[in-house]
Amino acid sequence: MAAAPATPALPLLWGRNNLPVPYAARWSAERAAMRGVLTVRPDGRGLAYRDEAPADRDRHGVLWARLTEAQGEGRPDFGSLHTVRQRRAMFDMLCQVCGGPASRTSRGWLFLVQRPETAEESADWPEGLLSTKPPVCEPCAALAARYCPHLTDPVAVRVRKPRVWGVFGGFVVPDADGGLVPSPDDHTLPYGHSAACWFLASQLVIELTRCWSACEPFGMVGA
């Protein structure tokens, strides 16, 4: 007897209007736990946690920002991604909206990206595009295109080889008094960079390679 098809995952809904909340989004009850626990490594070569555990660094040795897990509690922050869920969705190719498996066909994984403002920006766009946004499943592609404020002109793209590129976050460096000062600006940093030891990551960055020609979100996403 054939197995019954898996029940599709559904996004969390919030508020009087039942707005869909992305799986990777951060909630107000999820707190950062870094102040007072960040320090300089004993050898002076980079950042560390005073009570550092193996899970605080990725396989490239980059230190990650700590964030508590309280999905669904408080208010959703649609403009911020949770460090753990974002990485999980990237590594396991989960839909950033519902948390279920992302759509994959012979042409690749399904991603929604913002169309560039000018056609001259890149002749082979979106090949090589860097992204912190995980893929999506087909039902959630329409939800994301409708509700995400950052997707004013969304394009659906099939990506055969999403490649781990680096991290997004900020630098934290020693000051003259021996303390640590965070940079006011956010940065993307490729793995292997010489300054990675002073970087505190909050999101994984992937490079979209072997892209199938971009298509409209509601036209050919299943092709």
Q: What gyration radius follows from the Cα positions, in whole Å?
A: 19 Å
* Element-level helix/strand string: EEEEEEEHEEEHEEEE
> What is the share of helical residues?
under 10%
Shape: globular
Number of domains: 1
Number of strands: 14
Provide the β-strand percentage band. Answer: 25-35%
What do these coordinates show?
- It is a single chain.
- The protein is mainly beta.
- It has one domain.
- 9% of the residues lie in helices and 34% in strands.
- The chain has helices spanning 83-92, 138-147, and strands at residues 12-14, 19-21, 25-27, 38-40, 47-49, 63-64, 76-81, 104-105, 108-114, 129-131, 154-174, 180-182, 187-190, 199-211.
- The strands form four sheets. Strands 6, 8, 9, 10, 11, 12, 13 and 14 form an eight-stranded mixed sheet that branches. A two-stranded antiparallel ribbon has the order 1-2.
- Strand 11 and strand 12 form a beta hairpin.
- The model is unreliable at 1-6 and 218-223 (pLDDT under 50).
